[in-house]
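G., the chain you wanted modeled:
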Amino acid sequence: MTAIFIILLIFRIGITIGYWKLFEKANIEGWKSIIPIYSEYWLIKIIGKPNWWVLYLFIPILNIFTFYVLLFDLLRCFGKNSLMSQFLIIFVGPVYIPYIGFKDDVKYLGKLDELEEEKKSAVSEWTEAIAFAVVAATLIRWLIMEAYTIPTPSMENSLLVGDFLFVSKFHYGTRTPKTPLQVPLTHQKIWFTDVPSYVDWVQLPQYRLPGISKVKRNDVVVFNVPPRDLNEGKDYPVDLKTNYIKRCVGLPGDVLKVVNRQLVVNNEAQPNPPEMQFSYLVTAKDEINERNLIKLGIDPDDYNYLGRPEEGKAVYQMYIPEEKVNELKSLPYVISVGQDYRMNSGFDPRIFPRSKYSRWNADEYGPLTIPAKGMTIDINDSTLAFYGRTIQLYDHNDNVVIGDSTLTVDGQQVTQYTFKQNYYFMMGDNRHNSLDSRFWGFVPEDHIVGKAFFIWLSIDKYGSFFDKIRWRRFFKMID
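Predicted structure as tokens:
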């Protein structure tokens, strides 16, 4: 928070120096540029906007856009209305405004309604309109909302494959960019190509702006998945790692375990998400017609055909909610429906943290304490088994060496370690078809992107022409 304050202070000092000179050129006393908001009041007068525009500066999020609109208009009043000037005001405003303020050839031309209308070619107008749209969309995407698509069934039935949703950045606080040299409105690659959309020559320290809430248990959260092997085996910067969406089931400091498929946190059984799915083995008299499965609401993402163990039996693995189990049992061509015993039959070597101290599986997991900022642990072979990789890869240490039962940080062996940030535990609602924290570990706080907010479109890739769009899911809030 101190670093954010220093950055904002430097930004404001640069803006104020530029204001002072520009105010004087507009025959306004320079000292009126010193006081925030009061200076913007006079800025509004110089531009010729109504005085009530100052109210916009008190509305969170909107005040950022208002501020830049005022700066764009200020440029026009001083004859700087090129596209390049607009880009400079956005990216290096605290330097560019003093620059034009001290330039002798930059004169105040009058209020907006007094300026001579500039004739622009169609190409110039379209170029500026597109540039402004890209800048506005980039700011909205960074500060407020970003659109995501659900690509996998790991959150069914809460979120379905083909759901298009908006994710709120302002709930938990927007992260400042770490990788500034990037093509706007892209993530890892330029659209429809394998060409990287960024260069990592410049990596900035990352901070989080104030948000309106903290991450709460059971929030549906978008985050950058931490492990390298889930990021195409590449060491992407944090803000460019692959986005995952899961439900936060464990907060910093929580003690989490799964007992016979039931999630337990701090010794309290947690409420299960509506229509939570598990894996079941379904035995039918014959192969089930695909049309019958679709009528049951079971699409190809929800089942695997396992074959015929003997004559008169066809076995399926199905990821379905409990109420669907009873529906299947009532069908005349279904012989049996039972829990998938393979999911809890002893030790699963894929399960985090893959040690002799955690002989767990997806249905019998923990107990595991989730690291919290300021939490101190003793260093020994068991704690290193649970937390060593987290300390080494995600807790902002430059040089970590892990021995059998020793930890060396920056060349110094330590017997205790204190975590530098909070961590979270994420799970999918499709509990047996979700690659989540049970398999790869904790989500660091600096990997949190935002809160899944609402669905604005949903397309069923398996639906017929008339059923392609799931109208009932339009503008559905996510909980």
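The chain has three domains: 2-143, 145-177+206-270+361-477, 277-344.

Shout if anything looks off.
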